[in-house]
Amino acid sequence: MISTRMLSIAAYLKKHTVTTFRETADGLDLKERSVRYDVDRINDLLKDKKLPLIEKRPKGVLVYPDGLPEDALTECREFYFSTEERMDLELMILMILKDDFKINWLARDFQVARSTVKNDIAALEKKLEPLGLTITYTDKFRITGPKPDRTSLLNSEFKKYLTLLMTPPEKPSNFEAALLNVIAKAYKGVSVRGIVDAVNEMLEDNRIVLADISYNWYISNVLILMWFIINGKIYPLSDTISVSSCQAGFDCFIEKLEALSGRKVSDQNAAILVRFLDFTSKFARYNSDIDLVEAEAVTFRLIDRMSDEMETSFSKDTLLVEGILSHMFPLLQRVRNGICLDDKMITVLSDEDLPVLRLVKEICRSIQPLNRIQSEDEYVYLVIYFLASIRRMKSIPPKKILLVCGHGYGTTTMLKEKLQNEYQIRIVRTLPVYRISTENLEGIDAVISTTKIPVELPVPAIVVNPLPTGEDYDAIEALGIKRKRIGSSLLSLEQKLDFLSSEDRQKVMDLIEKELGCQSVTHKTEGRSLRKLLRFDSIRLIETAPDWRTAVWQAGDILIRQGAVTGEYVDATIRGMEKLGFYAVTDGEFAMLHGRVSDAVHKTAMSLIVYKEPVSFGDKKAQVVFFLAPENTNDHIPAVIDLTRMIKNTTLLQDLIQAASVDEIYQDIIESEISIVK
Predict the structure, then answer these.
(1) Of the residues 48, 63, 78, which one is the last residue of a structural domain?
(2) Where are the beta strands (DSSP E) in 172-241?
(3) In this structure, which long-range contacts are made by residues 344-349, counting pairs with CB atoms below 8 Å and at least 24 apart in sequence?
């Protein structure tokens, strides 16, 4: 019998011909002791077959034997699985092929004792317990628990093996071969590779490009849905949210899936496929660890219970549903990891709002896993969504808007969030500019685009920046679109909060603006958040800089060309760094460069350069360089606060360093900023 680890060692030795125990251990991330043990076992097998052995020379040198047949060892692979491999196979069988989960069968196939399989079952039960799932036996073994939770488990397991499913190796390991056999049997002869090809063709036909995380998420969910269809099961996804009707190419996609599977894809399942793609563009990239089924199930349990208790149709409020759904991902992640917020947001709520808070608490305590919430702030954030929904329902009917993107869907994410939060509108759908000429605009009140529209439209249309400017807001309001307001202006409200510290007051004001969809009537009091300050055309991706002074000039030149600063400001920044040192540089991470407020700054602005190779700032190094030019002492503070929170609470720096284009950098910043306001 030979294990996967032994096969890996043999393959490594064959590739390198002459190596050592230590080099082999390091190359495969193993302990040297394990390599020595397995080499002896391999030689025992070779000796039994009367084949040449792996030569062990002095000082730990290993020599792979000449003339060893390629399949000499792989013949033995089907008879051995490690404990981890065996349990992974057992879990997959339990999920998708439970009729085959019989102790005698498994003991025979795995070449182990019945007691070993029983021990595996006990270990699997312990593994599933935190997920609210159990293993039961009546006529057969099966995983029991809420169907959405079981589907989420299936999703997470499938994602582990996507590469194997999409591109099976010519010579799979014993584990890989066994897993592929289990999945092939569960799909009843339907080609998994064929399903993947159908997805790829649909994405290509519709010119849809997904990030790797989003692509893997979509493929995984399509494969699982097809398993449900092939086996005559109902997929546990709510149909409360209406799906987009503008996904061209889906009819052909559905026909291909039907031809592959020999089963009819119902209208409901077709809608779910569209919903998957819609979800992918909105939420999947934010958190790949939380599944749509899980998040949506929890979201609708909460909304349905709130609807019943308050006798209000919350489920019809698309903004509320999508807002809580997007909020649910980081919330569930925090609950899962035992993270407790301490933002002291209770002061945001008035006495009249406290009954809603008590109701949200009561309902959450009856819903898994919301019953594990430990922070009152989590409840307050949810309450805010419902309060905002109540206020929207009392307002005038929203304008129906078609959002057109130019830089890609990612660059419109923040724009969509901001427009829906600040204005009485409903974003009917989002589509790329190349599709606008064929789009049916019936029922659309206006089109808002981030790029020039090449054709005449029968409805009003404007072009705005992905991060809107003051002129953009004027253009939006010129369409007759009304802002959302709450009683008095934010300026008045802020003055009434003077009993709070400035930090707490700013926190409250930020929350009201971001969560309740309000905006101050006096823009000068707001300061400039990062999203308002850092423009798309202020970002560069550069190979490197020969020295730090060049880096400062590269970053400063961006703002000079925009008319924000003069060369004197850049020179002054360099002189300041020469005098005070590199206190604004965090070694190995980023630099926040800036000079003093002066006449050389014409307007508050910021640039960003991401270097592919680190730039030396004295004895420090940085790849991400922000260059700030403040017009006054206060205007830039919100942007710096935003950036600090993003760097502290997200993977922004790592994402920026790994970005391959300015568009990716911009998208990473938008997504990071979205995450800190949830």
Answers:
(1) 78
(2) none
(3) 344/377, 344/504, 345/376, 345/377, 345/380, 345/381, 345/507, 345/508, 345/511, 346/376, 346/377, 346/380, 347/500, 347/504, 347/508, 348/380, 348/384, 348/508, 348/511, 348/512, 349/380, 349/383
| Tokens representing residue 660 in the block | 């391959």
Q: ∠ CA(244), CA(475), CA(539), 5° rounding?
A: 80
| Burial status of residue 496 (CB atoms within 10 A of its CB: 0-12, 13-18, 19 or more) | exposed
Q: Give the pair of three-digit tokens for residue 155.
A: 């999703």
The CA distance from 121 to 129, in Å, is 12
Amino acid identity at 188? K
Cβ pair 153, 128 in contact under 8 A: yes
Q: Identify whether residues 220 and 328 lie together within a single domain.
A: no
Give the residue among 21, 23, 186 at the shortest CA–CA distance from 93: 186
Provide the 3-class DSSP secondary structure of residue 94.
Answer: helix
Distance separating the N- and C-terminal Cα atoms of the chain:
53
> What is the DSSP code (8-state) at residue 100?
G
Q: What is the DSSP string of 588-645?
A: TEEEEEE----TTBSS-EEEEEEEEEEEEETTEEEEEEEEEE-SSSSTTHHHHHHHHH
What's the full length of the chain, in residues? 678
Q: What is the pTM of this model?
A: 0.41
Distance CA 183, CA 200 (A): 20
Strand 534-542 relative to strand 605-617: parallel, antiparallel, unpaired?
Answer: parallel
Q: Residues 286-313: pLDDT tens digits?
A: 444 566 677 777 888 899 889 888 877 7
Residue linked to tokens 């563009």: 281
Number of structural domains found in the chain: 7
C-alpha distances out from residue 507 to 191, 344, 543, Å: 54, 10, 38
Question: Considering the domain boundaries, does residue 208 fall inside one?
Answer: yes
pLDDT band at residue 596 using 50, 70 and 90 as cut-offs: confident
Identify residue 458 by its one-letter amino acid code: P
pLDDT at 497: 59
Q: Residue range 365-386: average pLDDT?
A: 87
Mean pLDDT along residues 90-96:
92
In which domain, by residue range, is 60 found?
Answer: 4-78
Question: Which of 185, 201, 226 represents a domain boundary (last residue)?
Answer: 185
CATH of the domain at 409: 3.40.50.2300
For the segment 426-444, what is each residue's pLDDT rounded down to a tens digit?
Answer: 888 888 888 888 888 988 9
Q: Best-predicted range by mean pLDDT among 180-189, 492-501, 547-556, 650-659?
A: 547-556
Beta-bridge partner residues of 62: 19, 56
Q: In the structure, how many helices (H) and strands (E) does the chain have?
A: 27, 14
611: β partners: 542
